[in-house]
Amino acid sequence: MKTLLVDDDPFALKLLARQLALLGVLEVTICDGAQPALDLLSMEKQDFELVFCDLQMPGMDGVEFVRHLAHIGYRGSLVLVSGEESRVLHSVHRLALAHGIAVLATLGKPVSPQQLSEVLATHLSGEPARQARAVLGTVTVEDLGRAIEQAQLINHYQPKVHLAAGALVGVEALVRWQHPVLGMVYPDQFIGLAEDHGLMESLTRCVLRDALRLVKTCERVGLRLQMSVNVSMDSLVAVDFPERVAEAAAEEHVSPEILILEVTESRLMKDIRAPLEILSRLRLKRIGLSIDDFGTGHSSLAQLRDFPFDELKLDRSFIHGVAENPALRAIVDATLTMTAQLGMKSVAEGIEDRQDWDYLSAAGCDVAQGYFIGRPMPGEQLAAWHEVWQQRWHDGEFDPVRGA
Ligand code: C2E
Ligand code: CA
Ligand code: CA
Description:
Elements: E1 3-6, H1 10-22, E2 28-31, H2 34-42, E3 50-54, H3 62-71, E4 77-82, H4 86-98, E5 102-108, H5 113-125, H6 127-132, H7 141-149, E6 153-162, E7 168-179, E8 183-185, H8 191-196, H9 200-220, E9 226-232, H10 241-251, E10 259-264, H11 273-284, E11 288-294, H12 301-306, E12 311-314, H13 326-341, E13 345-348, H14 354-362, E14 367-368, H15 382-394
Parallel strand pairs: 1-2, 1-3, 3-4, 4-5, 7-9, 9-10, 10-11, 11-12, 12-13, 13-14
Antiparallel strand pairs: 6-7, 6-14, 7-8
Helix pairs in contact: 2-3
The protein binds ligand C2E and calcium ion (CA) (2 copies).
């Protein structure tokens, strides 16, 4: 794994190189400044896979370095290292992501061996590179249309559990495209395309139908699940949408009360009459409405004021790492207080580790979702996951004093 370390502090460079060597990373090049690092990266055949970069450097700092990395088309991964305040690190992390650079981690100084080995494991999993790589552009709207017709879209399901009691409360349907050539394509790479070309109605219909079938299958083995399905506010234009949803539920002999529609707004809406009518009538049909990705983009207080949501989903960008981040703590605590005062149910998505879980549990959040509990999976795997989950709960994994 060809690795480049950039830092103006020779001691920090030496320490990091030694720590990496202990973990078996031997092809390490060091640079004492951002400019020489860029010069090196711009040279041909210098295919570095991994760059560790300090933020505070004389001359060109790490923030500027990130911009230049994007300009020279760096394709590898980046780890930001700094003694700076965590909010600065966080902002630079967002900046790099916005430039399309795969950021593996942001680490405070000094870096611990444990952190380093986690970073390397993440890198080897290929996940961040997958996210940064935009498949968009290689798939066409004709492909997508055909995919919907030929049932190449499948749902994966991610469990949602009760934070205080541990019980499985439901699952969220997350659509994937099993592309004959590209393999599994994730929704971030085709939902926008579907929205732009009027394919959302048929896409949502497929997702909903499969989701309702799974509910029925689970009921047969005694598992009563709530089913969450994503819909974008922009696609709520057909005023008979509530009837269509109710009909789909009736066709599969499923009661509409088990359905929750997770609503997001991807662009600013000029005319809210149609969504207002549709969402109000969905509630009258006892279908649950969740405001998704709350706190980001257009998923805001204005939506809460105007629409009849009964569940609030805190976006995962506020959840992971909340325990150690004062800004996130303030945002999460305030949002949970508000959710309770509004009589709504709170759901935290993106719970990735035990610290996240403990924090949300102590803060009184109702429902948890995230990799720590379970990754999105094919419906057939849910029963096996559920057994493992119950075992983890009964083994007392969650017993020790919360927040200790
Ligand atoms: P979302 O509704 O916010 O869904 C949660 C996303 O976070 C999912 O990504 C899920 O795999 C991921 N995730 C879950 N737990 C964790 C965690 O602990 N850590 C991290 N880092 N990520 C986690 P996915 O499946 O790639 O979906 C991306 C987005 O695509 C969804 O975001 C949703 O907005 C949209 N989407 C998915 N399926 C549909 C659909 O059927 N219709 C519509 N309109 N949108 C959909
Ligand atoms: Ca969602
Ligand atoms: Ca989200």
